[in-house]
Amino acid sequence: MTSADSRPLVVLVGPPGAGKSTVGSALAKRLAAPYQDLDEHIVAAAGSSIPQIFESHGEPHFRQLEAEALVLALTANGGVLALGGGAPIPERNRAALAEYAERGGTIVFLDLNVDVAVKRLGSSNTNRPLLAGDTRARFRALAEERRSAYESVATVTIDTSRLTPHQIAERIAQHVAARESDSRS
Ligand code: S3P
């Protein structure tokens, strides 16, 4: 395989609270593949936390780091990659994701309803500047605003509202296996 063919096995997208990190870790274990979280790459590159990046340099700077990290992460071979909720929104990132899907990659939109999201997010929003304040209202607005972008990049959508992380990982593993076997034939 040349580096031009290198790509993650699967990319997870969806709003905050969709379970991208939990499902991503479970799926990576299931596939015996490495797990990467794009936000962790951004934090490592910036040397500061996400709230600090937003606070000191603003959201546009965060989005710039995110776009750069995405291009790199889409060439890493074989793993599971979870994206932050806003990553599929800028057009250039959607173009990078479309190109990844054309190379046979799988992009899963982890969808969920607002009640489940609020329950899952709980009070753990100190690391999520965009949900600060009224989590329910902020989540609803973000999810509505972004739905068409998530749908446009996804090769498959899973409603996670009534599924455990293990069940979701299992469904994705089956989908990936089918897609990988198609892309080899
Ligand atoms: C963001 C979601 C966060 C993180 C950043 C911005 C967003 O990731 O990338 O706070 O724009 O929705 P999670 O989706 O993992 O919370």
TrEMBL record:
Q: In which pathway does it act?
A: Metabolic intermediate biosynthesis; chorismate biosynthesis; chorismate from D-erythrose 4-phosphate and phosphoenolpyruvate: step 5/7
Arranged from A to Z, the UniProt key words for this protein are: Amino-acid biosynthesis, Aromatic amino acid biosynthesis, ATP-binding, Cytoplasm, Kinase, Magnesium, Metal-binding, Nucleotide-binding, Transferase
Q: Which reaction does it catalyse?
A: shikimate + ATP = 3-phosphoshikimate + ADP + H(+)
Q: What class of enzyme is it?
A: transferase
Which terms does the record give in the GO molecular function aspect?
ATP binding; magnesium ion binding; shikimate kinase activity
Location of this chain's protein in the cell:
Cytoplasm
Q: Which InterPro entries match?
A: AAA+_ATPase, P-loop_NTPase, Shikimate/glucono_kinase, Shikimate_kinase/TSH1
Note on cofactor: Binds 1 Mg(2+) ion per subunit.
The record's Gene Ontology cellular component field reads: cytosol
Asked whether the keyword GTP-binding is assigned, the reply is no
Q: Where does ATP bind?
A: G17, A18, G19, K20, S21, T22, R128
Q: What is its EC number?
A: 2.7.1.71
Where does the chain bind Mg(2+)?
A: S21
What cofactors does the UniProt entry give for this protein?
Answer: Mg(2+)
Keyword rRNA processing applies: no
Question: Which residues are listed for substrate binding in this entry?
Answer: D39, R63, G85, R146
Q: Which GO terms describe its biological process?
A: amino acid biosynthetic process; aromatic amino acid family biosynthetic process; chorismate biosynthetic process
Indicate the segments forming the AAA+ ATPase domain, all copies: 6-182
Assembly and partners are described as: Monomer.
Described by its record, this protein's role is as follows: Catalyzes the specific phosphorylation of the 3-hydroxyl group of shikimic acid using ATP as a cosubstrate.
The record's section on HAMAP family has: Shikimate_kinase
Membership in a protein family: Belongs to the shikimate kinase family.
By what name is this protein known? Answer: Shikimate kinase
